[in-house]
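Loading example: each entry is read as four labelled lines plus one structure line.
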Amino acid sequence: MDIREIAKRAKVSTATVSRTINRVPSVDPQLAKRVWKVVEELGYYPNTQARALVSGKSRIFGLIVSEITNPFFPEIVQSFEDIAVQHNYEILLTSTVHDPKRMELAVRRMIERRVDGVAILTFGMEDSLIEDLRFRKVPLVFVDVGPHVAGVSNIRIDYQHGIRQAVQHLAALRHLRIAFVTGPLHLKSALARKAAFEGAMQEIGLEIPPERIVVGDHKMEGGMQALVQLAGLRDRPTAILCSNDMTAIGVMREAYEYGIVIPRDLSVVGFDDIRLSQFTTPPLTTVQMSQTLLAEYAFKALRSEVERVATSPSGSEYELLTNLVLRGSTALAPSGDIAMKSSKITLLRRAPGESTKNR
Amino acid sequence: MDIREIAKRAKVSTATVSRTINRVPSVDPQLAKRVWKVVEELGYYPNTQARALVSGKSRIFGLIVSEITNPFFPEIVQSFEDIAVQHNYEILLTSTVHDPKRMELAVRRMIERRVDGVAILTFGMEDSLIEDLRFRKVPLVFVDVGPHVAGVSNIRIDYQHGIRQAVQHLAALRHLRIAFVTGPLHLKSALARKAAFEGAMQEIGLEIPPERIVVGDHKMEGGMQALVQLAGLRDRPTAILCSNDMTAIGVMREAYEYGIVIPRDLSVVGFDDIRLSQFTTPPLTTVQMSQTLLAEYAFKALRSEVERVATSPSGSEYELLTNLVLRGSTALAPSGDIAMKSSKITLLRRAPGESTKNR
DNA sequence: ACTTCTTGAGAAAGCGTAATCTATAGTATC
DNA sequence: GATACTATAGATTACGCTTTCTCAAGAAGT
């Protein structure tokens, strides 16, 4: 069933059917009604491929994420899909899993499907691939790392804002020895967080001995290892700020194994505010980076680039604030002697079966 | 840049270019090489829309899931995408969020984009929508609930297999009072799990007093409430089997608040084996339902339906086994007097700040 | 009453490709 | 040496739609 079938049954030309469906105002309301009736009756849905072919617009946006199985991304995908669908766009999702081969394939797929734009929400991407997309004038939007050229938008994240809040929150709770667990140091986003931490600490005159910054991997495992290192320090920190929530969750998990009670003995702060962080024990105090807003900005950036047909094709900039959200994983620093006591906690990892209790 | 541009530069007809690209064997290798060279040089990628239009195949599969933010689904999406991409298919993802309006829109989108098949991995879906797809002869694949008609495949899940293992595992650990936390009772999958539990219990002659089955919601909250109920029972169960992992995680979380030590005082078993369940404290013993295999079967079902052009269009059936995977949340049942002791644990919920310790 | 606009709708072109149909040269057959 | 095949590649059509062009009829201006 195609547009001609409708035309025949409504006794009009296909042009009129097309105009009706696309709500071109010059169609006589009488005729339009007749057309709509047939459309409804037959359950006709226009063929998007044909439309795309003739209009040159696919109404598809590509969405490239690092790993859909990383709890940070599903929220973004969901929000992005929400908005896209509302505006009659489809999304072509790809999860690169940090594999260059997959990235290349992803870009190829996007080009073959003639996407109208691509949101690149991945940490790290080959320049040559981006060039491939730029060459075909596909509007792009990046987080943080986009080049400053026409047709490329950027969402700048103000890490400083939330991280400063976190540091000051901890300082207000009398924490002096604050540690930081970074992400992989080749990620620009991880470096930016680390820099923000250092800046915020310096601002209030707190020193950071090098051993109090440990390198993680933005996964639970990294957080677990980080805690082991930090707990073994002579001047054990009383608070740990983490480069992302998964790291913080790893820290908390391992702290539990060591019988370190959070937040009594140790305050922990995360970053991202993934949904899961509401459900840890205790709920995680973290710096929120709104996934919904991120998706919204990304979509808006692409859309405005597409809409602006011939006019100035300047890539725009968006700014996403981060904000501390207080939950249960932070508390007053242990007072002097308690701190001493807690530093005496045996550093033997509890045997698996025995579990839970801190004697 | 289109196929004609290539044809012109390679001094052949568009037909030859098309044949070359599609690897039709009747093209002279010499010519083919010439064509490929131009293709490479210009970085030409065929326009999928045009291909779809003329071939009648979009090479897109729809994938409808309940909620991408539910940790069960990202793994499936990832696996499905993997396989799809390998076979040059694209996926059109939609997350219904249990909203009938969104489901309707999703189906409409799928039809407009002329998907070659739809995998419906959602719990519950309006029949009228399915009818809409069936009417257009779109191959479908369901989990459990699909009708037994041509063009519709089904992946049957053998809940019994894994749940029996779980029950027998608990029985072997001397648990006699085993409780079950169901999912929402309007879900066929939740009912099937409950039935499997009852069957397995009956099989080994264990009774299930009605109060030992409590209704959850397949979310953490439901698990938390369930624990409250079960812990309040006179004959407190020594083991709890949950209809899914999120429920089990909720149970464990609340148990922690009550100072009930897992697995010493209480064994907990989940269902699904989401990745997160490896990272709980203690790691969750659970019944695995392989998300990878599920995705694989779903894809295979659709593909074989598409491939089989004119031949017998019979929907096929797949069976997915479930299997117990042992981790740390199950242990020997507390012996008689310990059980008594543990049943005397105060039922006061610990004050938030105090947290962690079971004195 | 004649020309000039305006409105609305039909006819037809074209989007980029694959499939079908046709032509041409070279091979095999008798 | 004439006919019948067989490869191979070019010409053409069709896919379903939007858009431009064209045209008819009525409204308005002179």
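The two ends of chain A are 75 Å apart (CA to CA).
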